[in-house]
Amino acid sequence: MSIEVGSKISGKVSGITNFGAFIDLGEGKTGLVHISEVSDTFIKDIKDVLKIGDDVTVKVMSIGDDGKIGLSIRRAVDKPESAAPARRESSYQGRREGGGGRDSGGGRSSGGYQNQRNDRNNRNAVPKKEDFDSLMTSFLKDSDDRLTSLKRNTEGKRGGRGGRRN
User: Fold this and answer.
1) With bands split at pLDDT 50, 70 and 90, how would you rate the model's confidence at 76?
2) Could you tell me if residue 131 is left (phi over 0), alpha (psi between -120 and 50 degrees) or otherwise beta?
3) Over pLDDT 70: what percentage of the chain?
């Protein structure tokens, strides 16, 4: 039996480390299942899930040029399509409408996340040709603004105990 990327193979756990488990695939071949590929849920300690000698079915994810075989247990399990979680819409869209938020002036704010996103999309839609000097000047101006803001916000936080001394 040849080992190919995408194939499902039965193997036996031959070693466990803190980052994953080594699986003996037969024919003298061994692959690694990373701890993130063992289960769909978070695993703090892989020893809680796998033991040396356990028989597992794995899916071959990659075969490196150096012979390393990347395996996955969680992708070897066939899941029905309805079990896939539905994608949620971005939560930013509904928050700014109505009266809540920082600018509780009673309407939709004129700025905010949506306008920034639209400006970014418009910028990408029509590429502007700018020479190196103008790009460098805008970078320097932006960088100076950020440094000034950073200095202003961290100025009073350097001292140790007590208040400011004159």
Assistant:
1) confident
2) beta
3) 61
